[in-house]
Design goal:
alpha+beta; Immunoglobulin-like; globular; binds zinc ion
Length: 637
């Protein structure tokens, strides 16, 4: 969608040096234009939140976070109230202050709840107010928090709580302007049960894991609200390198540290291409298995699923991905959720580059190949409107945009530019792009203008014969970003290793090769996935049993391979994997695995019956985000 949608406000002239000492913040606002965000009630063009100070008590008995959020505001329209986003918050009172010391009660109103957006909160502001303090509690059903019983953890002794704020779930535990273009710094004091450790996406995380139930944190760089994150549990820390380390439950610590050993190397490799890592430390938090995503790039502390702990570092592309977000997403952020592809396409492209730098080009090609295949599978099922990078999400749940289109089509677009202009020139462009937009939230239109000016319009010689791929022009860029499908200039990842795998699979299928003669010893997870994906639909339970007998796939122990195998088991009606399927779906809450398995089950009446039986047991352990995805699929009487 085009520029007409952007409501442009000129901030530059409206500011004196009146507010705070935030010369820096003011500088940012001078530059920032506000886009229309369909997923927020906030009015940053009138009143903008710049800092959030949290004072929280975490109660596992009540399943609530209770306390205050004190918001520093900058006002450009003195007559406007402060508009905030909330979802199911129990608001006790709102107060304002002119000096930050004395607070006086003010009136506020909570609007009707929208099923995606939650409720607007309107706070009346006296003329001199510069801070707003809200006393509130989150709901036990807060969409951005998950409360785990001890039984749902690895250690089984202590409860666990973690947040997941992307896309618009921060509002379910903080009243704030929950739009990615309203960047804030934050500070927090968090009180927990004395024997548990709290960690946040900020400075202040304890490496000694010393516990007293009272923790303080500070994020001094302005971040979009969806990056505010907290976890509380029986956590321990282990260092991985100078700037890197891992937090997880004690019983997971050694395994996690082994799997994530290359993290520091990845930071160094990424800095070499894209410039300095701007966040100080890069730690990871390995969560219990109900975490709905693979990872979440919370700054300074990536949250990760334990399903990447495979014992052989084969699934650490996820770390490369979350680390890449330290540049694309956290440093330069999508201004609204329709610009999500800017976060994820860039990040997926960089993920593959990090994989190449650490594990070599063949591995990059394998992972890119699998990524493109997964994209093509999705495109085969999507309507045109969902195949567009700059997707229209008005009136929809922003989570609807979290598809391979944003990730893999986006990554192919950036790879296309790399292949067209050559690596050196394109890397220079990206490095400068990050530097020029550091700590800003930008729209697709801003990106396209920058791309045109700094790369496309320069008319550099390309590495392609233009008869095969047209030299990028505004038209080709528009085709990639604003049109459905995959342009014919889309790159083709190629893997010799995969060709070998496919050849052997073919020989097995046509009976010229036995399974025992296939050379699988040195196969990576990616080669196994390719091998299994080469098996045609409907190839039968007999062959499934043969494969299982030869390779023990029902007990693979590697989450990606098991997922692929279980998906095939449902398709082929291979009942020997039934028990494992049920256990897998109860154990793991990662949406990437859970959703397609239920989709496959739901395709037949018998499958739906099984889905209902399993879901009755697995649903209580899922995160609200996974629950709402599966609720839409599994329909039981
Ligand atoms: Zn991502």
């Amino acid at each position: 969608m085009q520029k007409s949608l952007a409501m442009i406000f000129g901030f530059a002239l409206l500011f004196g040096a009146v507010f705070f000492d935030q010369a820096n913040a003011q500088n940012m606002m001078n530059k920032q234009k506000m886009a229309e965000d369909f997923h927020s009630y906030a009015n940053p063009q009138d009143v903008m939140v710049k800092h959030v100070d949290l004072d929280w008590t975490v109660s596992f008995e009540e399943k609530t976070i209770r306390g205050t959020a004190t918001l520093d505001i900058v006002r450009t329209n003195k007559n406007a109230p402060l508009m905030l986003d909330t979802r199911e918050l129990k608001i006790e009172k709102a107060e304002t202050s002119a000096d930050g010391k004395t607070f006086k009660a003010t009136t506020f109103e909570i609007g009707a709840a929208d099923k995606f957006l939650g409720s607007a909160m309107t706070v009346q502001l006296p003329p001199d107010a510069s801070k707003v303090k809200i006393t509130y509690a989150s709901s036990p059903n807060a969409s951005g928090l998950q409360w785990l019983s001890p039984a749902q953890t690895a250690g089984k002794k202590e409860p666990f709580m973690f947040s997941q704020a992307q896309a618009i779930h921060a509002r379910s535990f903080i009243p704030l302007q929950d739009s990615p273009q309203v960047r804030v710094t934050y500070s927090a004091r968090v009180r927990t049960p004395k024997n548990l450790l709290a960690v946040m996406s900020a400075g202040g995380n304890s490496q000694t894991s010393a516990r007293n139930g009272d923790y303080r944190f500070s994020m001094t760089k302005a971040i979009p609200p969806y990056l505010i994150a907290i976890a509380v549990g029986d956590l321990k820390f282990k260092s991985l390198g100078k700037r890197t380390g891992v937090y997880t439950e004690p019983s997971m610590l050694e395994k996690s540290a082994f799997e994530l050993a290359d993290t520091e190397k990845m930071v160094i490799a990424t800095e070499k291409i894209y410039g300095q890592y701007e966040w100080g430390r890069y730690d990871l938090l390995v969560l219990p298995p109900s975490f709905p995503f693979g990872g979440m790039e919370n700054p300074m502390l990536t949250f990760a699923t334990p399903t990447i702990i495979a014992g052989d570092k084969s699934l650490v592309a996820l770390v490369a991905h979350e680390l890449a977000h330290s540049w694309s997403g956290n440093l330069v952020t999508n201004a609204t959720w329709r610009d999500f592809w800017l976060n994820e396409g860039t990040t997926t492209y960089i993920e593959y580059r990090i994989i190449e730098a650490i594990y070599g080009k063949p591995r990059r090609e394998m992972e890119s190949y699998l990524g493109k295949r997964s994209l093509l599978d999705e495109l085969a099922q999507f309507e045109d409107k969902d195949e567009i990078l700059h997707i229209d999400l008005k009136g929809r749940d922003p989570d609807d945009g979290m598809t391979d289109v944003a990730y893999e089509k986006g990554a192919l677009f950036f790879r296309h530019l790399e292949e067209t202009y050559g690596r050196e020139r394109f890397d220079n462009f990206m490095r400068t792009y990050f530097k020029d937009h550091a700590f800003q939230s930008i729209t697709t239109e801003t990106f396209v203008e920058y791309l045109m000016k700094n790369l496309i319009d320069k008319k550099y010689p390309t590495t392609y014969a233009s008869s095969i791929y047209p030299t990028p022009s505004r038209e080709t860029i528009n085709e990639w970003i604003y049109k459905p499908g995959l342009p014919k200039s889309a790159p083709e990842p190629k893997s010799d290793a995969f060709n070998q795998v496919a050849m052997q699979a073919k020989e097995y299928l046509n009976g010229t090769k036995t399974l025992s003669s296939i050379q699988t010893k040195a196969w990576t997870t990616q080669e196994w996935l390719h091998f299994l994906q080469t098996m045609p639909d409907g190839f039968g339970t007999e062959k499934m049993a043969e494969l299982d007998k030869a390779f023990n796939l029902t007990k693979a122990g590697n989450s990606e391979i098991e997922f692929q195998w279980l998906l095939m088991s449902i398709r082929e009606n291979y009942t020997a994997a039934d028990a494992r399927l049920e256990a897998f779906l109860i154990e793991i809450g990662r949406r990437k695995f859970v959703r397609p398995l239920f989709v496959e089950l739901a395709k037949t009446p018998e499958g739906m019956k099984r889905a209902c039986e399993i879901y009755a047991k697995s649903r209580p352990g899922y995160h609200p985000i996974t629950q709402s995805s599966v609720d839409a699929i599994v329909k039981c009487n």
